[in-house]
Design brief:
By secondary structure, the protein is an all-alpha fold. The chain is built from 2 helices and no strands. The longest helix has 27 residues.
């Protein structure tokens, strides 16, 4: 391998690591729960208003 290839690979590995570190499964789960709750509230909101 040439020095240029080694530098290219090192740069790619560094970028790949940054992308993986920035991803948060907890944040994704929270967003999914928010939209699921929002959808349920929109669907059954009128039902619960009349029941209360």
């Amino acid at each position: 391998m040439t020095i240029e290839e080694l530098l290219w690979n090192a740069k790619f590995e560094q970028d790949e690591q940054c992308v993986n570190d920035s991803y948060s499964y907890t944040e994704e789960w929270a967003i999914e729960r928010y939209y699921e709750d929002k959808e349920l509230f929109e669907r059954f909101g009128e039902f619960f208003k009349t029941a209360g």
